[in-house]
Every structure is written in C-alpha cells, then in structure tokens.
C-alpha cells in the first residue's frame, strides 16, 4: 500500500486539473488539512456506541443515526474527519459471513481481496483527484456480501467533516457475490467555515452474477465544500444495481457515478436530484457503458436552480458494437426559480450497433404560478407551498429511497425551500 500511495502521488503531480466542468482555481490544495484526527484524545474506532467519545456521539445523536441503527439497520459505521469512530454489524447478520470492516483492518484480514479490487475500477490514472485519493486515502469501509445471502435491512455509513479547511478521502469497496441481495445507505454532512474544504472520496462496487444491489447516497455538504467524488460499479450476468443520489449545497460539485454493464442481461437505474442556491455550481454526470448483450439502463435526473446557481447535467451512454439488443432511456428535468439561474443539459451518446434503442428527453421550466396560487389560496404560506411543489417534483426519485430516509431527505429539502423563499 505504501508503494501504491507513492506511485499515486507521482501520477497526481503529472496530471493537470480538470479542464472541463466548474472552475477549481479557488481550491488551494496547499491549504487543505489532509489528515485530521478528532480532537478528543480518546476518539478512536469503537464497536460499541457507548465507547464512542461523548462529544462525537452527541453530534451523531442529533442527526438521529443511532436511533436509525437500532430500528432499521443491519449495521452502521461512522467516520468523523479522517477516522472511523464506530463500526458494527448486528450479530445475526455477521453470522451469515457478511464482512463489514473498516478499510485499514481489511488490509490485514482480507489482503488478497483488497489487492484484487482496490482502485481497479477507478485507477489513479483516471483523473487528478483519483490520483490524489490513491495517495492520501484514509479509512472507511470494506463490505463483502457472500453468495446467496439476501439482506433485507440496509447497512448505513455516515461521514462527518468537522475540521477547519479539512478534507475527506474515504475509500469504500463493496463486493456483492453471486445471487446475493442487499441495500447500502450513505449520509454525508459538514459545517460551514470561511475556508474551502475538500471531499474526494471513492466508491468501487462489484455486483456479481444474478445479484442485486441498491445504493442510496445523500450528500448535505456546506457551501464552502468542493465535492469531487468518484463512484463506479461493475455488473456481471443478470446483475442489477439501483443508485439513488441526493446532492444538496456544496459550493462546487463534480459527481459522475458510472455503471459498467459488462456481461449479458445486466441492468442499472441511476436516479439523482440536485439542490443549491446563491452562486453554487452543481455539475453531475451519469455514465453507463453497455458491453454485454441485452443490457438496459435508465437515467433520471432532477434539479432546481435559484440565485445565479448553475446546474449542469451531463450524461454519457455508450453502447458497444457487441452489446446487441440493449436499451437506454434518459430523462433530465430542471426547475428554475428565477431568470438568473442556469440549467445545462449535455448528452453524449454513442451507439455502435443497429439493434439497440436509445431515447433521451430534457425539460426546463419555472414553478407554475397557478399551482402556487392554488396552495396559497387555501391558506398555505408561500415557503410551504413551494416546498410541496418541489417535493412533488423530486418524488419519482425520492420514493426509491428507504421510507425512513426519504422522509429525512424531504425534511432537508423543506429547509432549503424555507431559507430560499424566506
């Protein structure tokens, strides 16, 4: 791993900043704190919630994470700044040979699995921040779901950035073996400081034959955070993956989740929403590469814009010459709150055979004044009326999340609407 880090650092220095997408010139990598241990002396990895430092535990209690773990989850992990502070899977789930470990531990206990899969989907040469990730990644999780295991309860991860000018470069590696099924949820948050923070995590997911995975992620970053995240999945025969992303706040987002449909009959759904105000720049891009025969993909993107916000949605769909009888359908909808905001839609579609089907559509419009009048005429305040319209606009994506977390995401959107309208 040391040699891997050094080689990644060498690649990082050789690569330029991305030339496409948002302006990153204000991101000063020399001012970023690359490793931040929680300030509490006894803050460290724990397998019992009661052993977590009281001040850190109090923050997670306010977010409702322990309560969710007790009621709905098969296990949970918490990362605070650069360290895992808690990691546990319920005993009845661990007895099924499910592996749920933090990455440093997994390097020792499952070294061959890690070596075989670590940064193979997203190599250090992929882009400058992938190389930086390879050099300075810190903690997070390794998950392995064995063959034929069907896990009804989700596993959850929660990331908290709490350091002035801090960063998180967590690495998540997930392997879902043949005929397995499960759900994984990520939540991320950060307070606002007067200096830029950087999040450049990396997620690699391997979904093997006839297995199903549902991956939900909500990133509620502060407006001083650069969110430059990379997420990629590889699917084998008859595999299915659904990915649901919610992006709120962050001054700049460059998030490009990708599914590679490598083998026959594999399927993926990529669903995403983006919300931000006041000069923020959300640049998101769903990518699907069809390689196997009879593969299919659906992409749905929803965004809202206000106060000079720039929303750019790119998608790349590539159907190779040997991906016979494959299909893709992409929908991109944007809701604008004023005449100053911008919504861009940039498709990039390549179909190299004549028996596959590709369809895409994009719409942009303002909040319907008649709908707003209807709600307000029945006694609703303007911010509540706008919240209801926006929640309906996002409903086709939000309803795909587990019920409890869909409710939490709706609350976050309501807060956004309250601040923007008030």
Written description of the protein model:
It is built from ten helices and 22 strands. The chain is an alpha/beta fold. It folds into two domains: 2-366, no CATH class; 367-422, no CATH class. The strands form two sheets. Strands 3, 4, 6, 7, 9, 10, 12, 14, 15, 17, 19 and 21 form a twelve-stranded mixed β-sheet that branches. It is globular, with a radius of gyration of 21 Å. The termini are far apart.
Task: Write the SSE topology.
Blueprint: H1 2-14, H2 54-62, H3 65-72, E1 75-80, E2 83-89, H4 91-94, E3 99-102, H5 103-109, H6 111-117, H7 128-136, E4 141-145, E5 155-160, E6 167-168, E7 171-176, E8 181-189, E9 197-199, E10 202-207, E11 212-221, E12 225-235, E13 240-249, E14 252-255, E15 258-261, E16 267-275, E17 281-290, E18 296-305, E19 310-319, E20 327-336, E21 342-351, E22 357-366, H8 369-377, H9 382-398, H10 403-421
Parallel strand pairs: 1-5, 4-7, 5-8, 6-9, 7-10, 8-11, 9-12, 10-12, 11-13, 12-14, 12-15, 13-16, 14-17, 15-17, 16-18, 17-19, 18-20, 19-21, 20-22
Antiparallel strand pairs: 1-2, 3-4
Helix pairs in contact: 1-7, 5-6, 8-9, 9-10
What's the short version?
By secondary structure, this protein is α/β, with parallel strands linked by helices. It has helices spanning 2-14, 54-62, 65-72, 91-94, 103-109, 111-117, 128-136, 369-377, 382-398, 403-421, and strands spanning 75-80, 83-89, 99-102, 141-145, 155-160, 167-168, 171-176, 181-189, 197-199, 202-207, 212-221, 225-235, 240-249, 252-255, 258-261, 267-275, 281-290, 296-305, 310-319, 327-336, 342-351, 357-366.
């Amino acid at each position: 791993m040391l040699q891997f880090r050094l080689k990644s650092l060498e690649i990082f220095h050789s690569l330029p900043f991305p030339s496409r997408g948002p302006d990153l010139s204000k991101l000063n990598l020399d001012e970023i704190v690359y490793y931040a241990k929680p300030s509490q002396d006894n803050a460290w990895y724990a397998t019992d919630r009661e052993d977590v430092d009281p001040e850190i535990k109090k923050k997670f209690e306010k977010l409702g994470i322990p309560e969710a773990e007790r009621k709905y989850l098969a296990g949970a992990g918490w990362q605070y700044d650069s360290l895992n502070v808690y990691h546990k899977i319920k005993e009845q789930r661990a007895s099924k040979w499910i592996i749920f470990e933090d990455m440093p531990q997994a390097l020792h206990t499952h070294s061959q699995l890690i070596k075989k899969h670590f940064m193979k989907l997203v190599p250090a040469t992929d882009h400058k921040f992938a190389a930086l990730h390879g050099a300075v990644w810190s903690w997070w999780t390794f998950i392995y779901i064995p063959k034929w295991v069907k896990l009804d309860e989700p596993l959850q991860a929660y990331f908290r950035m709490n350091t002035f000018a801090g960063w998180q470069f967590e690495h998540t590696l997930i392997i879902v073996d043949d005929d397995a099924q499960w759900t994984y949820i990520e939540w991320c948050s950060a307070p606002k400081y007067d200096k830029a923070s950087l999040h450049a995590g990396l997620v690699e997911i391997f979904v093997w034959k006839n297995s199903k995975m549902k991956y939900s992620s909500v990133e509620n970053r502060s407006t001083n955070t650069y969110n430059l995240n990379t997420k990629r999945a590889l699917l084998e025969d008859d595999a299915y993956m659904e990915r649901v992303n919610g992006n709120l706040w962050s001054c700049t987002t460059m998030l490009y989740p990708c599914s590679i449909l490598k083998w026959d009959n594999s399927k993926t759904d990529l669903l995403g929403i983006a919300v931000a105000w006041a000069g923020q720049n959300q640049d998101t891009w769903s990518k699907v590469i069809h390689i196997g025969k009879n593969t299919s993909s659906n992409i749905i993107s929803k965004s809202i814009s206000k106060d000079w916000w720039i929303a750019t949605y790119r998608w790349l769909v590539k159907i190779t010459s040997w991906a016979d009888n494959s299909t893709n359908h992409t929908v991109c909808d944007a809701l604008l709150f004023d005449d100053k905001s911008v919504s861009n839609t940039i498709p990039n579609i390549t179909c190299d055979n004549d028996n596959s089907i590709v369809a895409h559509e994009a719409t942009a419009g303002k909040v319907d004044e008649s709908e707003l009048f209807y709600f307000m005429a029945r006694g609703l305040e303007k911010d509540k009326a706008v919240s209801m319209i926006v929640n309906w606009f996002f409903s086709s994506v939000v309803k795909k999340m587990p019920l409890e977390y869909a409710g939490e995401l709706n609350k976050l959107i309501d807060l956004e609407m309250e601040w923007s309208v008030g």
